[in-house]
Specification:
single chain, 93 residues, mainly beta, ATP Synthase, domain 1, five-stranded mixed sheet, five-stranded antiparallel sheet, 0% helix
């Protein structure tokens, strides 16, 4: 599935991921391939991408959670996500 993470200043990430874990208003939620369409506001926390690697152009924005799993995190203050037809856009600050 394709995920794009945008801030007012720059594109943080754009690419294919296996899944994404997001800090929702009512707790964390996981979006996986073929997930139903969703629009949700996001709290401060970490957006976690589950993917084999992050392109070199975006790597500077992410922290690798651990060496065993391919999980990359990006801290946000707040935001909104729209996901539909295996494409997601995360607008955040």
């Amino acid at each position: 599935m394709n995920i794009k993470i945008l801030t007012p200043e720059y594109v943080v990430f754009e690419g294919e991921v296996d899944s994404v874990l997001l800090p929702g208003k009512n707790g964390e939620f996981h979006i996986m391939k073929n997930h139903a369409g969703v629009v949700s506001s996001l709290n401060g926390g970490k957006v976690k991408l589950y993917t084999k690697s992050v392109d070199e152009a975006y790597a500077k924005y992410f922290t690798k959670e651990n060496e065993k799993d391919s999980v990359f995190s990006y801290p946000i203050k707040s935001g909104v996500v729209e996901f539909n037809h295996n494409k997601g856009i995360i607008l955040c600050e």
